[in-house]
Amino acid sequence: MSETNNCELGTGNFKEAVCIDAGRVYDSCCDRDCLEDLRCFFTKDAQNCINQAISVRLKSAEILNVFIDVEPVSFNKGFYSCDLTFFFLMNFDVFTSPNSCPTSVNGISAFSKKVILYGSDGNVQVFSSLAGDNCSSSDTQSVNTAPKCVVQSVDPIVLTARIGKIRDCYENVRYIPKQISEYLGGEIETNLEPGTPTVYATIGLFTIVQLIRNVQMLIPVYDFCIPEKQCEDSTDRPCDVFRRIKFPTDDFFPPRNTNNGSCSLCSED
User: pTM for this structure?
Assistant: First the structure.
């Protein structure tokens, strides 16, 4: 058990109780989504490459951004609906002929889901002073009626991708925000005719969604957090730094699975 100023943590021997303003998690959930056949959108040049493709391989996928909208549930007081829209950057190897070198192409995909969580009630107006300015009355005014929704996720798991044809015009009803399309460096083709070749990707997504509200809490204080570790000087020669790196034994000899069927954070669906 670690100690702070000769006071063992967990014994109740704290110095004082202080009131802090911090975010408290009122409700949270974890989820795993297998996103099948996500329609991918491309720039004009990339779409021309897709039109000539005979096969495609999904190399990587990453989350560019998550758009979050929080609204109260009218029929259930204290609960909120969190509408989440994920935008993914997909990287593909596109093959246009047998035994040819692939062409690297990037595309954008989107996925929306809704989560309902408990966020309690609150209806206060918050005013704060500007730091270092004693003459101003207040900084900003915000109506704190809804809690803050926080989404945590790891990089999506790449599963598969295939070449397909657009089935109907409804697949084109997708708005790609400008800040998302800028990742592809050009205007995205979102209005293609049915029958046009496109790519459908399948990925796995793990997420944790939390509803957080700022509240005042009374907590025990043991002491100030004074760093005990001294900053290291980074002026060493590269080879000296390399010699201090631990040998990557696990990379050469992968360890066995020692989980033995123990429960993970989220149970299987």
Answer: 0.75
Neighbouring C-beta atoms of residue 55, cutoff 10 Å = 13
Cα distance between the two ends of the chain: 38
How many angstroms separate the CA atoms of 251 and 243, rounded? 17
Question: Does residue 256 sit within a domain?
Answer: no
| 268 within a domain of the structure (yes/no) | no
For the segment 199-250, what is each residue's pLDDT rounded down to a tens digit? 999 999 999 999 998 888 888 888 877 777 767 666 667 787 777 788 888 8
Residue 268 host element (H or E): none
For 45-103, give the DSSP string.
Answer: HHHHHHHT-SEEEEEEEEEEEEEEEEEE-TTSTTEEEEEEEEEEEEEEEEESSTT---E
The single-letter DSSP state of residue 15 is S
- Our count of domains for the chain comes to 1
- Main-chain phi, psi angles of 172, to 5 degrees: -85, -10
In this prediction, residue 142 carries a pLDDT of 53
Q: Domain range spanning residue 190? A: 23-129+138-249
Query: Residues of the chain whose pLDDT is less than 70?
Result: 1-13, 123-125, 130-144, 173, 230, 232-236, 258-269
Pairing of strands 55-72, 79-95: antiparallel
| 3-state secondary structure (DSSP) of residue 128 | coil
